[in-house]
User: What shape does this take?
Amino acid sequence: MHSALTASSHPFATRKVLSSILSLRSWRPRAACQAAPQKFFWVQTDKQEVLTTALESGCSTFVFDAEAVSVAEKWAKLAAFQALLINGAALIKLDGMQVGTVVNVGSGGDLAAACAGAVASTGMTLLDARDWRIIPAENLVAAFQGSAAKLVAVAGSAADARVMLEALEAGTAGALLRTNDPRQVRELATWLEGRAAEAARRLVFERAAVARIKPLGMGDRVCVDLASLLAPGEGLLVGSFARALALVHSECAASAYIASRPFRVNAGPVHAYVALPGGRTGYLAELRSGSEVMVADAGGRTRTALVGRTKCERRPLVLVEAATADGERHSLLLQNAETVRLVGPCWRAVAVSELREGDAIFLLRQAGARHTGIAVQEFVLEK
Assistant: This one.
């Protein structure tokens, strides 16, 4: 993806600056907004209610202790699912066929032994670390890279499962949710569904021609500092109206006057909408530390990022109006500054201070009517 980002296609970047930008990202194991591998979850429970909820949520594998084989056989008559038994250090099917191993981590020695045997492992490896969770998962995720085995981590809640599935960014292949609470099952299933939908989703931008640029007075502008580094071509989708959001580029480009800040997006005034995960929108004024936003790139790929902090300051604003092919005009307000850039075709990012009538930018067209950030089917007139 970065091969398209040359000095000639980025008017704001010399080859030296672009090289420094890309070097900031060289440590990342995957390209920006690249689709992540599919994750799965298993469930271990004593309650039939949880079994039913898990089946309805798409879970097809349930794990039982060896002494609960009679329960597994009984429940297997109620619905079609794969039953696995934990038999010492072996993970077996009801017919006795071994499909993996169980790694119980209670000490540093246990963890070291598991990591040492990771490369030669095959099938499933079930990690059960009752006291330490994150560090063993990270160490084993690193050790299992390149292994034919799939690493599955035991978790006691949906939140813990998410930590395992995202450990060292790549995460474990799956999680075994050990719970008697059906709400935990639904929460984990919902998160996994959203993650899969995000990975498969590709936004379709419309090309719009800048029709008017008008410097305005002062307003309260929000800078969004993310807990993630953004690559060239990435930014946040922002607009004065939810029906048309522009891709506002990050401040990853350095200049003679300001250092590169690849975690920051100078997003716009407090009233502006910003795209959130799950097809929702929110107001920039509502973002705070820990909020989730949707990062997009010029190719339409998306990913979720955490907000580290926001800064609201009085700054001069500029009105940008752009017309799409159907003749409709769309507008947004931005800070009037060289560090605020809009993304357009060919991954070209242009500072608002350099925009000219006729310049092409990308807009994401979507439903305009919103209720608490969710698209609704109703008439709304905004201008």
